[in-house]
């Protein structure tokens, strides 16, 4: 399946249940990276606008570049009231933005879907001299027993599940001279059964209602949750990982 269409049937769950990025990460971008009220940003692969909205009141303009029409519509709705947000029908490889038009390029939970070589050329085209690229992911703590069992379940029942990939090697090849500033920020969340299942179903690899094993998948997720939850809640250990550099 074309990566640009993978989330078409998952928009509602994505909007409701995907977490934002750590507040300390946003503070770091403002205090240390230089994101400011005069900045122009391209948020590439903006999806439903989770990260776009977190930056919307921190910058002058943020282009929410998103190729999937359903995701882009959700982003426009989610970011209503922010005049700084401009939705753009574009992709990482073809953003539709002018040459040297942005101070920063961001990609939140998205870079792994891009064609790295084509994206690098496009980012070099649209970013201003000395502009920065910010790649960020929310990543679960895979050493945690609950998350281990969750991952094993997805590996068993979801044919499209590929496991957790490391980003360091890709970033070494992507950033200029392999140089970037890498930071980790704690971003834990507390989930109910509903939000745990909704979050899982927002993933690109998750089964949907049309799949033969969907009911088994939901029952298995419920069993894992009930095994580890306390009073109907579970602490999801999660970190925001960021990579900031030039291309």
From TrEMBL:
Protein's gene: ycgJ_2
Which domain of life does the UniProt lineage start with? Answer: Bacteria
In this protein, which residues make up the domain named Methyltransferase type? 43-135
**Under which name does UniProt file this protein?**
Putative methyltransferase YcgJ
Species this protein is from:
Methylomusa anaerophila
Enzyme category, top tier = transferase
- Which keywords accompany this UniProt record? Methyltransferase, Transferase
Which family does this protein fall into? Belongs to the methyltransferase superfamily.
An individual GO BP term:
methylation
Q: Which InterPro entries match?
A: Diverse_substrate_MTase, Methyltransf_11, SAM-dependent_MTases_sf
Sorted alphabetically, which Pfam families does this protein's record hold?
A: Methyltransf_11 (PF08241)
């Amino acid at each position: 399946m074309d990566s640009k269409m993978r989330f078409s049937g998952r928009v509602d769950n994505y909007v409701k249940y995907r977490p934002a990025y750590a507040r300390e990460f946003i503070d770091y971008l403002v205090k240390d990276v230089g994101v400011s009220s005069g900045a122009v940003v391209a948020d590439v692969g903006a999806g439903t606008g989770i990260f776009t909205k977190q930056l919307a009141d921190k910058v002058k303009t943020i282009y929410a570049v998103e190729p999937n029409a359903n995701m882009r519509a959700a982003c426009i709705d989610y970011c209503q009231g922010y005049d700084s947000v401009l939705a753009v029908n574009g992709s990482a490889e073809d953003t539709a933005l002018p040459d040297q038009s942005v101070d920063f390029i961001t990609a939140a939970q998205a870079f792994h879907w891009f064609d790295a070589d084509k994206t690098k050329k496009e980012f070099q085209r649209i970013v201003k001299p000395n502009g920065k690229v910010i790649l960020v992911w929310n990543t679960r703590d895979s050493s945690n027993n609950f998350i281990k069992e969750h991952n094993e379940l997805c590996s068993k029942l979801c044919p499209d599940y590929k496991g957790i990939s490391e980003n360091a090697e890709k970033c070494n090849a992507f950033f200029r001279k392999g140089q970037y500033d890498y930071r980790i920020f704690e971003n834990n969340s507390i989930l109910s059964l509903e939000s745990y299942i909704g979050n899982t179903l927002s993933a690109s690899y998750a089964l949907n209602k049309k799949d033969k094993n969907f009911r088994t998948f939901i029952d298995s997720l419920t069993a894992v949750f009930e095994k580890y939850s306390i009073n109907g809640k579970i602490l999801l250990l999660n970190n925001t990982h960021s990579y900031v550099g030039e291309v």
